[in-house]
Task: structure prediction
Amino acid sequence: MITVAALYQFTAFPDPASLRGPLLSLCEAEGVKGTLLLAGEGINGTIAGSRAGIDAVLAHIRALPGCAGLEWKESSAEAMPFGRMKVRLKREIVTMGVPGTDPRAIVGTYVEPADWNDLISAPDVAVIDTRNDYEVAIGTFRGAVDPETESFRDFPAWWAANKDRFHNKRIAMFCTGGIRCEKSTAFLKAQGVDEVYHLKGGILKYLEEVAEGESLWDGGCFVFDERVAVGHGLEVLPHELCRACRRPILPEDRARPEYEEGVQCHLCVAEYSEDDRARFRERQRQVKLAEARGAAHVGAVARGE
Result:
């Protein structure tokens, strides 16, 4: 089995570029694949590999400035869920695009998974899903508000347009692994919202720790690797990716008339030009040729968060 580790840490990296080379070299030496993002505000990403390889990389990260208390969430996969290893330099480790939003300075109140149901069931609490529309489409908490955002960058504008809906409400927010809520709760606190809560460890931790019979979660949780979606107990669900739009679809969606493997699905059939589809068909042809050779093709990897 492959060990999958999702991690993030907000900390000050004065020179994140200097950290990239050694981290990438270690991952490659250990056979670890995935994506790690480095920025002046910290590190974020998901990696997969052998138990020993993941342990080696986590030990390296914990030795970085401010990362001794690094927390991560683990799951497993039967096959390597990533095609290659990438360590990228970014302006933000999760992009909100609001300068000065710093979870190290101000953040919402963490709520353990065991306490989450009681909080979101309270009548004076508004529950907001901070994830993107394609993620919410396959699963969310009962009664949660869907901002219908295409990217996390859209969240501040959505809040500005909708904040009056939540007057005199306590706000509870959640996301996949917790990192987007670090930014969104810091943002709301800076906007003057007094009581802001977020699910510690995100949906993944909730699905790991809360029994299905007691759960208020419905559907699947989109993950940013080749497993596509997981459910209670972090069991891998049958969802697949449309290789054109990178949205999750179900196996039966392949039978829809709009579906063409690697080219389009019913969700994106109207979004691309004929030139786009021609490029997608050529990419799919290359993917099939690579598969015939027993090799991986980078066009077949999952979208990043």
